[in-house]
Structures are given as structure tokens and as C-alpha cells.
Amino acid sequence: ELFNESFHDYKGAKQEAIIKFLNPAEINQLGEEKRLSILDICFGTGYNSSCIFEELFKNKKEFIWLGIELDQRPLKIALKNINFRREWSSTTLSILELISSEGEWKNQNSYGKILWGDARKSINLIPKLQKFDLILLDAFSPSKCPELWSEEFLRSLVKRMAPNGRLTTYCRAAAIRNSLKRAGLQLHSIIPISNDKKDWSSGTVGILQTKGKEVETTNQSFFRNLTKMEEEHLKTKSAIPYRDLSGGDTPKQILLRRQLEQKESKMESTNKWKKRWGLF
User: Fold this and answer.
1) What is the CA radius of gyration of the chain?
2) Which residues contact 175 (CB under 8 A, 6 or more apart)?
3) Of 62, 179, 196, 231, whose CB count within 10 A is highest?
4) Cβ 24 vs Cβ 190: under 8 Å
5) Calpha distance 49→247 (Å, rounded)
6) Exposed (0-12), middle (13-18) or buried (19+): which is 179, by Cβ within 10 Å?
7) What does the pLDDT look like over 146-203, one tens digit per residue?
8) Cβ atoms within 10 A of the Cβ of 132, count?
9) CA 232, 238, 239 angle in degrees (round to 5)?
10) Which of 170, 174, 181 is nearest to 240 (CA)?
């Protein structure tokens, strides 16, 4: 109600978590032989992390998990729903219950903890030496929750990534992609499951590549390099970033600042870009 937006895609929460977070994470390729470290920004009802948990347990991989979430209610509501509970193994369910009741859990050689509160403040509670192999970014949309898509916040996430670490998000907005690119990530586009031209991407994967070692995508990958159309999108007014100069600006302040910057910009209009690529 606060953001006036749904938590998940109308096609289904678990399907969205698999397509936009689990698959492009390719967790079996991350972390090499060391214990995998994961950061979930906007944990919500827990679908994204739960899909990751199930895969890690299946492959007997050790991991450290940290979650950040503003509101404790969504998970509590989800855990009371029998259909939600049927989605997960008993191991994952016990973790979700401990996250809800205790805020942390330990399972053999894996450990997890959630930080409740504004992500902009919570991110600073994590030790600077802690680097993450995988970051899941699932905040409400930039127009509803711009504070978690600002250039400053995204840069703070990239600083927390391990070499060859991966950030995956459902967001394909030019402003977000440009901010991630400026922060040093190699950008990729999550391949959509439909052939609808308007559904040209299911999200973004950003990789903090080792110097001189570019990640190559194959036909088997869940993501691909940006197309010419997507590259051109990054040169339109849509690519002007959200700026949170104080780290505590209100959504209204952030949105207004961006609108003024777009108004003064000489960059190509997004409508012109859409028309050129037949996206209307």
C-alpha cells in the first residue's frame, strides 16, 4: 500500500523469481570453491532467496546470506499461507520461519541474517570487507521507490561486490543500467520468455569483471549482451539517473530532481527512440 504496487509479476511470483533471479544468477558458476556470499536487497516475501536456497541445498553448496527489508509483515503473512508453504522444502521453510522470528539462522556450514529497515542505512551496517558473489536487487520500481535505484545507492552496492560478482534485477530501465555501467559493471540483458517485441528484456545482469577478462555469453546462457536497441536506449533522456544526494532524500525530491534534469537535457527523447524501434 505504501508504494501502490504489486510485489510480483501477475504471471506468478515463483516463475518471476526463477526467470529474473535464479536462472541468471547461474550460482553453480559463482564463488568457485569458496563459500558463496549472497545479498538480497528487498527480501519481501522471500521468493527470490528461497529459490536460491533450494538450488544451493540441492548442490550441497555452503553459503553466507544477508537480507535487507523495510517491512517484517510480508513474510509473516506469506508464512501463514498454505499455498506459499507448499512451494518450499522443509529446510527452506525452517529458514524463513527463523528469519521472521529471530532475524537469523544457521544450518550446518551456512549462515544467514536479515537487517530490518531502510536499505540506504542498512547497507552501511555490513562490514566493508564483506564482499558478495551475488546481489539480488528487487526494490519496487524506480518511479515508486527511486531511493533504492539512485546512482549513489547502486554505486554502494557495486562496491560490495566480489571480483566476478554478479548483480541481477528485474529492472531494464536505462537510468538504472547507465548507473550500473558507470559504477563499473559489465551489462547483460535477461532473455525474455516471450517473443513479444515490447517484452524485449526481462531484466539486467551486471558483472564486476576481473580486469581484462570479459564474460562471454553463449546460446545456453539466460542472458545476452545488450542489443543495438538497448545500447541506444542508454543515450536517451530515460538514461538520466536518479540522484539521492544526501542519502536520505524523499522519493518526491529524487523524482523532481530527475524531471528537472531531463527537461534541461539535450539528449534524445525516449519517445523518438521508441518510434524508431517500433515499440509503440
Assistant:
1) 19
2) 142, 149, 238, 239, 240, 241, 242, 258
3) 179
4) yes
5) 26
6) buried
7) 999 999 999 999 999 999 999 999 999 999 999 999 999 999 999 998 877 778 999 9
8) 25
9) 65
10) 174
